[in-house]
Amino acid sequence: MSKATLYSLPGSHPAKGVALMLDFKGIDYRTIDLMPLLHKGVVRAAGFPGTTVPALKFNGEKIQNSVDIARALDRIVPEPPLLPADEEARKKVLMAEAFGEAELQHAVRQILWNAVRRQPRSIATFLEGSSLPLPQPVAAYTSGPIIWGEYKVNDSTDENVKSNLAALPEWLDRLDAWVEDGTLGGDTPNAADFQVMTSIGLLMTLQDLRPLVADRPIGKAAMKVVPDYAGDVPPALPAEWLAPLRQQAAAV
What we know:
By secondary structure, the chain is of the alpha+beta class. It folds into two domains: 4-76, Glutaredoxin, CATH 3.40.30.10; 87-251, Glutathione S-transferase Yfyf (Class Pi), Chain A, domain 2, CATH 1.20.1050. The protein has helices at 13-25, 39-45, 66-76, 87-118, 136-142, 144-153, 158-180, 191-203, 210-213, 217-225, 239-251; strands spanning 4-8, 29-33, 55-58, 61-64.
């Protein structure tokens, strides 16, 4: 079976999730890290139908989207499986995976780029461990157009980020409940773990949010799956945006 090639972006949570899936499956792979925004043309030039990462070449196939990649990996390399055999457990894992992909993933991305726009030099911290031949000081001083472009492309407006942060307390309660019932955070990771925990790991690279998430069941579970998420964004978000999360934390 051929070696896999994973096209990624430094700090990309869905790409990090796919990398963890490949590790879990014991699949040999190489990672090609691309520059944000410029990656779209590179991915298309590599023969993929879309412009997004994660994009995976494996066993003669070209697959995009973390959920589609998870299904393809279970088809090509069935053991160990990313979905439980038990039907009820499988339904719960698929539900958690769908929530992670459809709601949580992009919300975290929007929050991140809004914060990084306010703390632009922090973008360099996401390069740790990446294959980009770009020194961190150079990245910090040349990243303005990339940050602005990602902010615009991801619609990381203040209005959207305030809405996401207002929804986060309910979302975290839902994720905590999935940890408590074993859907997430079990002894053997599943597809939902790789989908959700990477988003929580990225969320905790923000100093504004780390203390409000890290001690929760989902925060502790994420640290087991993704203990070394690169990135560190100093306080950036307005206090009033964080009020719902702080109120929830104070009530616990």
